[in-house]
Amino acid sequence: MKRVFAFFCLLILFTACKDSTVKKTQPAIAQNDTPEQVKETVPFRWAGANIYFLLTDRFNNGNPENDINYNRTEETGPLRGFMGGDIQGITQKIEDGYFTDLGINAIWFTPVVEQVHGATDEGTGNTYAYHGYWAKDWTVLDPNFGSRKELEKMVKKAHEKGIRILMDVVLNHTGPVTKEDTAWPSEWVITEPTCTFQDYESTTACTLVANLPDIKTATDEAVELPDALLAKWKSEGRLSMELDELQLFFDRTGYPRAPRFYIIKWLTDYVNDLGIDGFRVDTVKHADEKAWAELYKEAAYAFENWKNRHQDQVLDDTPFFMVGEVYNYGISGGRNFDFGDKKVDYFSHGFNSLINFELKTDADKNYEQIFKKYSDLLHTKLNGASVVNYLTSHDDGSPFDKERRKPFYSANVLLLTPGASQVYYGDETARDLSIEGTAGDATLRSFMNWEEIDSLKTKEILTHWQKLGQFRNHHPAVGAGKHKRLAKKPYVFSRTYTDGEFKDKVVVGLDLPKGKKSLWVKGFFGDGTQLFDTYSQTQVEVNKGRVTLDNDYTIALLELAK
């Protein structure tokens, strides 16, 4: 296949150089190309992925009939109750092509396992587990989010579009105690002290916050299943099945029946049964790091099992992927996270990538400072590992451009910075992040602003995100390649990515003048080379080391013409 890629690229270059006519034409990979066509010509790389992150409950309501379950009808604080978003709603948007149009090649959705049934009130008004991070039973889905069959369909439909699925998982803690939900046994969890985050021990050997029981991930001591869970399974008619499956798991692996291994089994079942492509792991630094290597080992085993049984559905030979939320990890730290008294390399404990909390502050620098820094670090300190960059998220109360005054600039920074990109739902539509009357992170979690999507202003913003996203998706060089500045003013840079016989190279111009403009590409694309600007849909020829465009856009996204 790699030889075919190389031959194809040479054929394109030869054909392009014969044609010196400047003309309007179709993009290298048109928006209506099938995922199968894209998959054949563009290899997927997690290191440069374009990931869409959404709160399952806040994205799209595909099935209003599942909006209320377990008598979750108490009044809540603003944006602290279930609002109806579900798995079926995500699938609808996959089938509608919403993610494809955005150039998204992976979807990360918040946890969908069964949540605690009751509400808590920690001073912000009643709060239900709409966010998915308060697990009650890892073995079954919460009906507010949908059914296992609906999740299976979502994964299948995403794969048909060439989109990977990242499932958000929680191993570190259970849900809180409520009027409806009892605590897990003391053999399973610790409830004090509360973490103070002063050093390694006060970050890991503690409960994250009050009333959020912490799983004993460091112990190898065997524990029995909680009576409440056994009774629940029995009432649901699946006690024997669950116990038999656990027996097979522990017989195969030889693990002790310690708390973390039960949960690892339950989480990796979704990979084994449904073909989940990767995990986004919550609260990583608050658990013993050896647990993550064990989670990855079993998830990778489960993924290969699924692929062996579903060879007709396998996208490619990409292995299982795991990205971790090590809160406040920054790319400048390289492979290590520093607790003050101890440094931990999570990349050596099961993680392919970590979420990078640094871009939101780097975004205030100029483009070249950002891009050069990230390219240099990813190809030196972090060589072989990767990061997922973001500007806004569900629990970062200090996001970049919280007032949504710079949606175009935000797109440029996020989608053109080396590394993987995390588009938080509504980034592409300037969804409001400052909701009056909310407390804490609830303001970041309003329902997706579909009602605004047809407005002229939102359409203009969305179109910009779509153009950049598709360019990124079609070119691994953008996120996974090496960066080089070609010209300072107007600002022009190149990205190059090589993997065996596959080679990808692009040029981007930013902050360009409106009207006629000249972009310096000498030393990267030779004279006579035919290039295509995917932003303006214009084909141009390199002449005396430059290409000339005449339009009102301040950005150019140049690729070899096809």
Question: What is the structure about, briefly put?
Answer:
With 562 residues, this protein is of the alpha/beta class.
Tell me what you see in this structure.
The chain is an alpha/beta fold. The protein has 2 domains: 130 residues, Immunoglobulin-like (Sandwich); 322 residues, Alpha-Beta Barrel (TIM Barrel), CATH 3.20.20.80. The chain is 30% helix and 19% strand. It has 16 helices and 23 strands. The strands form 6 sheets. An 8-stranded parallel beta barrel has the order 2-3-6-9-10-13-14-15. A 7-stranded antiparallel beta sheet has the order 1-21-20-23-18-17-16. Strand 14, helix 14 and strand 15 form a beta-alpha-beta unit. Helix 4 runs parallel beside helix 6, helix 10 packs parallel to helix 11 and helix 14 runs parallel beside helix 15. The longest helix is centred in the middle third of the chain and has 20 residues. The two termini are 19 Å apart.
